[in-house]
From TrEMBL:
Cofactor: Mg(2+)
Family matches, as SMART domains: DAGKc
Entry annotated with the keyword Metal-binding: yes
Species in which this protein is naturally found: Salegentibacter agarivorans
GO BP of this protein: phospholipid biosynthetic process
Descriptive protein name: Lipid kinase, YegS/Rv2252/BmrU family
Entries under Pfam families matching the protein: DAGK_cat, YegS_C
PANTHER family: LIPID KINASE YEGS, SPHINGOSINE KINASE
Amino acid sequence: MKEIQKVLLVVNPISGGLNKEHIIQTIDYELLKINAGLITYKTTGKNDREKIQKLVTENNFDRVFVAGGDGTIKQVAEALINFLIPIAIFPAGSANGLAINLGIPNILEEQLKIALGNEHKEMDMLEINGELCLHISDLGLNAELIKNYEHSRIRGKMGYLLQSIPTLWESKYPFEFEIELENKTITKKGILLAFANAKKYGTGANVNPKGKIDDGVFEILLFKNFDILEILKTLRNETDGNSEFVEIIPVKSARVFCRKPVAFQVDGEYIGEKEEISVKISAKKLPIMTY
Ligand SMILES: Nc1ncnc2c1ncn2[C@@H]1O[C@H](COP(=O)(O)OP(=O)(O)OP(=O)(O)O)[C@@H](O)[C@H]1O
């Protein structure tokens, strides 16, 4: 890969409720050692994509480092869609689903080695209703949980935990989904319908054991019923593909129709209630630094 001369570091100051000063200072110090320039951009929550795009257009960056959660990585990926600059992740969100799927370690020094190294993956991305999805998007119970979490004051994993009871209490599951595949249409009931580019949710739950982030397909996962035992198995990574609990369909594109509007999320960001979803593998790939 090209020698690193200039790096853009995008930092989300609020993600995961974590202070990022140590990350910024360590990256600054390491780049000084190799004589590379650094521009740090702190997100504001307003027009970040446009501002990142402007910086990338005006500078000649060799890498873009991201210290934030999945939402921040997604914004950076959208900003870089026409630039082909490798992205490196410094996981600093609540869930860090993408980093977990890419096997990015928790130790900052290890993350730096990957970010400054030569190995990268050409990652698949999904286009869902015209918007990019890097990791997992879903309709149903999980999106309802994310909606409630976004309205709560407590961030981080505890915030999700606290919202799980009211979410279950208020939810109108099961939902009915009509799924239009390449060669057939099926109608199914379930608590959650996910479009997964990877194996795991940010909690580490291995919901899609066969998922590969760069295989040119994604999986539709239909969770049929609320089965605590199966959920616990999934959380412990002991998924055995029990088809009574979850049905997995690998595809390159699909459309989904719901009888009533159902809560919908993309990469951990609540989008709203939707009746129709159109999803396909994007023709564009995301160069992402890995081992
Ligand atoms: N300075 C800021 N103030 C408020 N919100 C911000 C700021 N910068 C970014 N955001 C918002 O942060 C969100 C992305 O957060 P991200 O997913 O990276 O972190 P996270 O901790 O994993 O989030 P979550 O807690 O939702 O899992 C976006 O909605 C973005 O608009």
